[in-house]
């Protein structure tokens, strides 16, 4: 419909002006100069716009089909997947020893946004494979690493995560899939998993399933769970493919969206599997994948918003309807473009300020992950551990809302599938659900992350906000437009955290009843912080006499919108939180 | 999936305890005693649950198909439509002289909620027909009334609204469809209309299209528009059907939802039409349909929320996952039901308190329409004219959000079509768009309704809130839990209205930039008022020693939730509104 405009300039600003990657001292980061990252970003934008975008509607319309037990992907996915592999895009941040490009995760995130923005269902194949790569890299034996990592990095083989069972979703302790130890050290896996994304397809020679199952001797609930590697085709000692394993697709689900990626019922009928990581410590190993997946899903949330926003914006500039109330702006045409109308602009500014703020937050999150991985930075690890549920929950909720707003700009044309915008809404919806529904993210944030290490990380977050304000409050404009609203919002967040600390132990429901609001409150403060950092950077650039003042002025104007119009909602979230559990828990279940 | 529980008790409470219909003095209302309305409500709930509910997923899956120029509806729709006609449900509030039941509109609304909650696409056939009935009843000649009204009341014939053209949606002044006057007083209509719901189908003998077109001699823009009656089959003088008119279906749109109702491209190729109402005054006549349609769409918004809520609630009670943090509540089961978790309850309470508040608001709106129609009550007409954009915009926005929340309770099971909840989200999405996109509702509210008759109606609304508070503040509990929050929210609304009055004339963009927030702010205050009225009623019932205290106590608890947790957002809306246009209009269009 529209030509995709990759956000290269915006990423360059984040990577170099805001995060100052080359000055970070992290291994390999000195090579990430502006020309180098621009080349990567432009190339990612190009392949995304030219190869992935045209397949988005194809995947949605055609979906995946089960033919004699084998899932067939939509027409053209195979060639596009080959092109992604050939370009090295599947292995951007994988280790060079396994054929990866060895770039930091943040570059993978940047490219990932561009891929997701044009074709989320397609990008899931490599996204899940990356998760399997990371889990095996972190927990595998040398042998396992040698067997699987290069193949996963190249996406010659792809990966899946097998957690959910029909009766066990969030509550994995209920799972029933069994692992029986064999004399040769392997296990026989028996059970049924559901909702397995990319559970089968025809894009790769082999599929490596990572499967949670219960092996004998573990405790009750989640303690008895182990993680197993279960390949679709067994792998011979020389790395060649052997016989077909006893894992099969039972069904493909009919879904609201992401039709280009088959969501499978997977049947394990005594399939051969190998333990990954320690016995009965499967949850820990799985969390390596889950945390990465949650960052990736947060990325999906805002990336789909970014893609939808571009489409809505193009429509708002093109569609002629009505006249500007302040005087005709398109006198030679039959009407003015939609974008002249204040309420359309409000909607566009909400989308734009969310997308750019979210992009900065996700990039900062990725940078924290790089700090943690490349420099063993414990503080960075603590911070990203705190921020992960916020990034997953807030960015997918708000990202979905933004796709709905973009759709709304199209009016009736947004409701028909022809314009393609409905697909963004339908695809974005899953991001609020999978990899831990957003209510579970809120629970994780309030019930676990907030108090972890004695509350050290949330304190560090508050300290960071405080010192940023202090460092910058000499600038009167910045102070009025950004630092004061940030201070007020951060104070709301602190009050809410304080309320939880005071009530959480004696009345846990009082904290949990406010958990969802807290996640959103935190998200707004995090975006407020990112906007303030971007604004300070933009101010400095302008003061130094930038040759691109329009970019920085636009950045400041967009940030001001966020601070003025979006951030004040923190007060409402706080007001809701401190009402505690009373009105939430007032009714007996049978009175609903 | 679940058995539908018609909200009979809740409607009885609204009709008799809150609105006190039989004491209203309106014609025919003395007959609406509790037994009589209960019988109607129960019968509507029964037919909805037994006949419409099973067809909902069928309609969604199967959709409508074009066969040799004729639209075929999904399997079973024909029999269900016949049953609805036979039961008199299509003519509930039509005039007895045309075969109607002669009940007030409020009873049609109550039945309508039940029909929409189980099958929105199906109910649109009769909903649009009712709109055509009303337009002809209000603007038709005696001859036209005699020709069409009885057939429309019975739904032997159905109706459509033809406004939109490809290039003319909100901006109807751009429309190109032409009407050429003929010597016999008829017109030949030529042009193409799009997005025509129920534009063709196989449920009725004839379809009466009401078509906006430009006849010679009118002015530019909307001034030149007239409204025409264009039947699919010409009607002979004796009322029998004559030849096929030159109107045909060009295409059926592929849509996100409401698949059971064909959205048609309609081609008028010199089709015979007859002027309805005055020449060049078509917009006025069309607004009779539009205002009714907007009420009906507001109804759809909350009715789908009501249906989705019931499904989400049933799932939350049934699905076992995790344990209550305050101690196991289902010790004999493998886990506790979802409803024990505070965040699930928060979501359910948000849905429940919205649905019940919205139901009361819509019912009050319907009662105002009855006052206006049956007693020529100008104040009631002014009030409903003010409230119509709020009911349409706020109830559909929040209704959609509620369906998304209900879907979220299902977790991954909500994303697959099998559980049926995704359909609610997809169907609900259109209600925010059609009959005037919600941004247009906000514009109508702020740009037109607020200042109409010198602001008389909004003043009357504030006065109503004020006197309600004054009358009831003697009750300390009511005062603390309901009246104080209502007073604060109403003050926010007044401040916003004041801001618009002060800035609107000299800086219209400053008002319009806040129009959407104002619509939501108004919606919350309106629901806050309805909750306060319901609470006062429930308190009085309990004080009088009701034999059904659980119902009234539940009502009070649900209302308290709304006042505590939802109403405080008015402060955020006000904060956003008074920032004016600066940050909204800051960017040039090419800087987006």
Descriptive overview:
The structure is a homodimer of 592-residue chains. By secondary structure, chain A is α+β, with helices and mostly antiparallel strands. Helix content of chain A is 56%, strand content 12%. The longest helix of chain A has 37 residues, at 282-318. Chains A and B meet through helix 8, helix 9, helix 10, helix 11 and helix 12 of A and helix 8, helix 9, helix 10, helix 11 and helix 12 of B.
How are the secondary structure elements laid out?
The structure is a homodimer of 592-residue chains.
Chain A: H1 8-18, H2 34-62, E1 65-67, E2 70-72, H3 77-86, H4 105-118, H5 120-139, H6 142-154, E3 157-162, E4 178-181, E5 187-197, E6 206-214, E7 225-231, E8 233-235, E9 241-244, E10 247-252, E11 263-276, H7 282-318, H8 342-375, H9 378-409, H10 412-415, H11 421-431, H12 438-449, H13 456-472, H14 476-504, H15 508-512, H16 515-543, H17 549-566, H18 569-577
List keywords for this structure.
homodimer; 592 residues; alpha+beta; seven-stranded mixed sheet; two-stranded antiparallel sheet; 18 helices; 56% helix; globular
């Amino acid at each position: 419909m529209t030509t995709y405009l990759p956000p290269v300039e915006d990423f360059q600003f984040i990577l170099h002006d805001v995060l100052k990657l080359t000055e970070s001292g992290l291994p390999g980061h000195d090579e990430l100069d502006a020309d180098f990252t621009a080349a990567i970003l432009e190339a990612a934008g190009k392949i995304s716009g030219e190869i992935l975008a045209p397949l988005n509607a194809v995947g949605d319309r055609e979906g995946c089909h089960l033919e004699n037990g084998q899932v067939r992907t939509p027409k053209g996915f195979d060639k596009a997947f080959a092109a992604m592999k050939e370009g090295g895009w599947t292995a951007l941040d994988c280790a060079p020893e396994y054929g990866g490009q060895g770039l930091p995760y943040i570059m993978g995130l940047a490219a990932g946004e561009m891929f997701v923005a044009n074709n989320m269902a397609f990008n899931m194949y490599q996204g899940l494979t990356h998760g399997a790569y990371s889990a095996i890299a972190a927990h595998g034996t040398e042998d396992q690493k040698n067997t699987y990592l290069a193949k996963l990095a190249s996406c010659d083989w792809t990966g899946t995560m097998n957690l959910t069972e029909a009766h066990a979703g969030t509550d994995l302790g209920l799972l029933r899939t069994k692992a029986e130890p064999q004399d040769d050290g392997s296990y026989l896996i028996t059970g049924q998993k559901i909702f397995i994304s990319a559970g089968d397809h025809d894009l790769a020679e082999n599929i490596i399933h990572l499967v949670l199952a219960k092996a004998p001797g573990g405790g009750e609930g989640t303690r008895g769970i182990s993680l197993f590697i279960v390949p679709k085709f067994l792998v011979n000692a020389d790395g060649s493919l052997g016989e077909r394993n006893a894992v099969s697709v039972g069904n493909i689900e009919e879904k609201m969206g992401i039709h280009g990626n088959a969501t499978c019922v997977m049947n394990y009928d005594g399939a051969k599997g190998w333990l990954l990581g320690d016995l009965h410590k499967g949850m820990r190993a799985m969390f390596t994948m889950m945390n990465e997946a949650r960052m990736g899903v947060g990325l999906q949330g805002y990336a789909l918003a970014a893609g939808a926003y571009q489409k809505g914006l193009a429509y708002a500039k093109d569609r002629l309807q009505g006249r500007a109330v302040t005087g005709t702006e398109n006198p030679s045409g039959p009407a003015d473009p939609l974008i002249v109308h204040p309420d359309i602009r409000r909607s566009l500014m909400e989308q734009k300020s969310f997308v750019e703020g979210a992009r900065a937050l996700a990039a900062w999150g990725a940078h924290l992950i790089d700090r943690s991985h490349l420099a063993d930075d414990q503080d960075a690890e603590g911070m990203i551990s705190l921020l992960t549920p916020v990034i997953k929950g807030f960015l997918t909720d708000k990202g979905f809302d933004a796709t709905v707003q973009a759709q709304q700009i199209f009016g009736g044309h947004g409701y028909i599938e022809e314009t393609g915008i409905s697909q963004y809404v339908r695809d974005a919806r899953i991001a609020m659900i999978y990899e831990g529904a957003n209510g579970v993210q809120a629970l994780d944030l309030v019930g676990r992350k907030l108090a972890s290490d004695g509350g050290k990380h949330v304190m560090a977050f508050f300290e960071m906000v405080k010192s940023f304000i202090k460092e910058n409050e000499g600038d009167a404009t910045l102070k009025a437009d950004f630092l004061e609203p940030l201070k007020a919002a951060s104070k709301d967040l602190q009050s809410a955290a304080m309320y939880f600390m005071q009530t959480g132990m004696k009345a846990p429901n009082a904290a949990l009843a406010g958990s969802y609001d807290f996640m959103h409150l935190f998200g707004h403060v995090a975006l407020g912080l990112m906007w303030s950092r971007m604004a300070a950077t933009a101010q400095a650039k302008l003061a130094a006499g930038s040759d691109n003042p329009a970019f920085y002025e636009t950045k400041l104007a967009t940030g001001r919108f966020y601070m003025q119009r979006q951030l004040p909602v923190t007060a409402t979230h706080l007001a809701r939180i401190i009402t505690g559990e009373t009105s939430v828990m007032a009714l007996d279940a049978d009175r609903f």
